[in-house]
Amino acid sequence: MNPDKQPAKFPGLVHETPGGGILSGPLEDVVKWARSNSLWPLTFATSCCGIEMMSTAAAKYDFSRFGFEVARATPRQADVIIIAGTIVNKMAPVLKRLYDQMADPKYVIAMGACAISGGPFFYNTYSVVKGADHVIPVDVYVAGCPPRPEALLHALITLQEKIRNGGKRERIDIDGRNI
Ligand code: SF4
């Protein structure tokens, strides 16, 4: 097995003591490690990609194996939103409000061609937003129409690696200004 692909180890030392143990390590690394292993996704899907997202959570692919099982129905208890489906102009302010209500630090995955660029609705439509990044910042993009569950799992693991490595992304508000 490629050692780079093994599950992330605790970034410090565990000193066994009678009846317990003492953990030591750089605080920043421990926080990033803990944060990357406790991502709570918001339940949010607008069209067909949502079915693939549900499949990723169901028994065959089971994203709880990687620590994503605590899907929340409220943005106030979630810190990652998977945009699974088409975003229409009417939905854009709602997406922005949900994002604003999520707990910081928060992360965004754009799943599928529609969330990345408007997908098959890119041309000749007045109603579809041509990419979620016109509304909120995106951390990881997943190509496909729709992407398979394996691709979404890969995106979630990529997000974990990005968090552990201290990856930052520029944040823009809905008018394109840095915030
Ligand atoms: S990318 Fe394809 S499968 Fe996903 S929401 Fe758009 S049209 Fe549907």
Q: What percent of residues are in strands?
A: 5-15%
Radius of gyration: 18 Å
Oligomer: single chain
The biggest sheet amounts to: 4 strands, parallel
Describe the protein's architecture and organization:
This protein is an alpha/beta fold. The protein has one domain (40-167): 3-Layer(aba) Sandwich (Rossmann fold). Helix content is 28%, strand content 14%. The protein is built from five helices and six strands, in the order ββαβαβαβαβα. It has a four-stranded parallel β-sheet. The chain has a two-stranded antiparallel ribbon with strand order 1-2. Strand 3, helix 2 and strand 4 form a beta-alpha-beta unit. Helix 1 (27-36) runs antiparallel to helix 5 and helix 2 (49-57) packs across helix 5 (149-164). The N and C termini lie far apart (42 Å). Bound molecules: iron/sulfur cluster (SF4). Iron/sulfur cluster binds next to helix 4.
Secondary-structure map with pairings?
Blueprint lengths: L12 E5 L2 E5 L2 H10 L4 E2 L6 H9 L22 E5 L7 H10 L5 E5 H6 L22 E3 L6 H16 L15
Parallel strand pairs: 3-4, 4-5, 5-6
Antiparallel strand pairs: 1-2
Helix pairs in contact: 1-5, 2-5
The structure holds iron/sulfur cluster.
Briefly summarize what is shown.
The chain contains five helices and six strands; from the N terminus they run E-E-H-E-H-E-H-E-H-E-H. By secondary structure, it is of the alpha/beta class.
Label this structure with key terms.
single chain; 179 residues; alpha/beta; Rossmann fold; four-stranded parallel sheet; two-stranded antiparallel ribbon; 6 strands; 28% helix; binds iron/sulfur cluster
